[in-house]
C-alpha cells in the first residue's frame, strides 16, 4: 500500500483504466501537457500519448458534445470540466443528450462517459470556483452522480464509474484533493461499488449524512457531540444518485434523528430529496424533524466563505437540537 | 505565415435551365441511379404530404417535413459511402429511408406505438437508426453538430476511413453548438461534412436575420473549414458537391457545405407560414422546386414518363396506406417501457415508481389497448 492523496489516487485510477482498455480517452482544457490545473491528469499524455489525452479548445460545450460523439462511436471518454462552476455551457449536452441518449434511442445508443469535475468551496475561489451543482444533475433522469471523500474510494469509485454502463458525473471535492490521504494500492485494479454508502462512524442516536469534503466536518461535529454524550452515526454517501437508500433508512430506523449536510444552497438541494425520502420511508421511526445544515441560499461568497460552508461549528448545534427534540 | 485566400467558389450547379447537363459537370450517376434517386425524392414528397393529411385528420400528433428540400437531403445522403454515418437534424427522414429503414418502422415512429424503434418515447419524426449508421433526432438546435464531429474524430483516432455528415438548418449556425462543432472539426481535422440546409427560414425568422454575413458558407473560413455552396434544389449538383466535400474531409479538410434550398412548407404541422411570408415569395420558390427539375432531366433523356409517375405515386400511396393501417392498429407501448432505458438496469427508485405507476388508474386516451 502507498499513502497517497486524492489527486494521485484519481490519476492512478485513470492509468489503470487506460492501460486495460484502449477505448478510454481523456479530454479537456489543459489536461495534457500541464496535467490539469489540479494535476489530476499529470503524466497521462506521456504514458498514453496525444492520441488518447487531448488538450481541447476552451469550450465546455465542445468538450462534452464531442465526447458524446466519441461515446456513440464506442470509445469511453473521460472529459474533464476544469471547475464544476464552468459546466453550464455544456448543460444542454449533458441534460438533453448525455442523459437521454439511451432512452430516446430506444436503447440503440448509449452515451457512456465519465465527466470528471472538481467541486465545492473552501479554497478561496469565490463563486465561480466553489459551487456544488450536483442537484441539477441528480434531478435529470439518466445520470449517475458520484462524490468521493477519500483517495481509496476516489480510485475505486472512478474505476467502477468507468465500467458502469451509464454516464456518470464524478465530482471531485477540491478542498480535500491534497488534504485527505489514505492507503491506496498503486497501479492495482479494484472497484468501490456505485450506490453503496459507507457508515464511517457507527452510532445510535443521530444519523449524520454527508459526502465529499463536508464528511470531515460531519465527523468532527460528531466527535464533539460524543463528548457531550450524543452518539452519532455518520454516513458517507459516496454515490449521490442513485443513492443507497437502504443504508440511510436502516440508520434512521435505529436513531430516529437525522441531520443532512451539504455545501450547496439549501432550497431544492439534494438534502431536500434525502429528507423527503426519509419522511416517506421511515416516518414512523422519526423522533425529531429531519434537519439540513447547508450552504445558504446566496451565491457562494469569497471573503465569508467559511461562514457560508456548513462546517462542524454549524453541524454540532443541529445535532444537539435534533438529539434533545 | 501565409495569408489564406478567403475566396468563396461559385455555387455548384449541374442542371441547366433547359434540363440538360453539360458533360464537364456531370457527376456520372448511372441512368438507373438517377431514376432511383428521383423516385426516392417523389416517395419522400408523397409521404410528406400524406403525413400532413394524417396530422390534419388528428391521427398523428405532428410532422416535420422536407417539402422543397428533397434534393438537398437525398443528394447528400446518396453521395455517402455505405460505411459513412449521418447525424440528422429533424427533416431527414428521406435520408433514413434511403439508408434502408423500412417504411413501416418510420410510420410506427410517427404513431409512437409498441413497434416504434424508439418505443414511443419521442414526438413523431424523432427517429433513431443505428443499424443504418444514422444518429438520433433530438429537438434542441445544433447538439448533433459537436456529436458528429466527436464521432468522426473517434473514427479517425481508430484509423477507420469513414466520414460523418451532419445536417442542420441555417438557423443553427447561430447556436453555440455550431461554433463548438465547427471549431473542433477544424482543430482536429475530423472527417466531417457540416451540411447547412439553408432553406430560407428558421420558423418565422428569415435567413438574413440569422447572420450579417453574406453567405453561411463563408463562416467556414473562421474555423479552418473548406466552404462549398451548392444549388440545393439540383439533385445532381448536391450529389457532386457532397462527393467533393467527402473527398476533402477524408483528406483532412472538413467542409461546411451550404445547400441553397427553400422550405416550401411551414416549419412543421404546428406552424402557420402565412403569418410571416408572402405568396409572391412562395410562387417564385415553387418555380425552383427540385422535383420537376429532375423529372424534366429524366424525361429529356427518355428515362421517365407520365405513366411511370402515376404508377409510382399509386405505389407510394398504397405502401403508406398499408403501413398506416398497420401502425394505427398496433398497441401502445407497454406501461413498463416508460421505466426502461433510463439506466442500463432499473435502480430501486424506478422499480418503486413503476410499482406505484402500475397501481395508479390509467390515463384515458393512451395505452387502452
Provide the structure class of chain B.
Answer: alpha/beta
Kindly state the number of beta strands of chain B.
9
Q: Give helix % range of chain A.
A: 25-40%
Counted by DSSP, the helix tally of chain B is 12
**C-alpha termini separation of chain A:** 45 Å
Strand order of the largest sheet of chain A: 9-11-10-13-14
Query: What integer is the average pLDDT of chain A?
Result: 98
Poorly predicted regions of chain B are none
Specify which chain pair forms the largest interface: A-B, 46 and 46 residues
What sort of overall outline of chain A do the alpha carbons produce when their principal axes are compared? globular
Give an account of the 3D structure.
The complex is a heterodimer of chains A (325) and B (369). Chain A is α/β, with parallel strands linked by helices. Chain A has helices at 6-20, 44-48, 60-73, 91-98, 101-104, 134-138, 151-163, 214-227, 245-255, 270-282, 305-308, 312-324; strands spanning 2-5, 24-28, 53-55, 76-80, 114-119, 144-146, 168-173, 181-184, 198-201, 206-210, 232-236, 239-241, 258-265, 291-295. In chain A, helix 1 (6-20) packs parallel to helix 7. The longest helix of chain A is centred in the N-terminal third of the chain and has 15 residues, at 6-20. Chain A is globular. The model of chain A has no long low-confidence stretch (mean pLDDT 98). Chain B has a single domain, classed as Rossmann fold. In chain B, helix 2 (70-79) crosses helix 8, helix 4 (103-111) packs across helix 11 and helix 5 (143-157) runs parallel beside helix 6 (176-188). Chain B has helices at residues 31-56, 70-79, 93-98, 103-111, 143-157, 176-188, 220-223, 235-250, 279-286, 290-300, 306-328, 348-359; strands spanning 85-87, 128-129, 134-136, 164-169, 192-198, 201-202, 205-206, 226-231, 255-260. Chain B is built from twelve helices and nine strands. The longest helix of chain B is centred in the N-terminal third of the chain and has 26 residues, at 31-56. In chain B, 49% of the residues are buried. At the A-B interface, helix 3, helix 4 and helix 5 of A face strand 2, helix 5 and helix 6 of B.
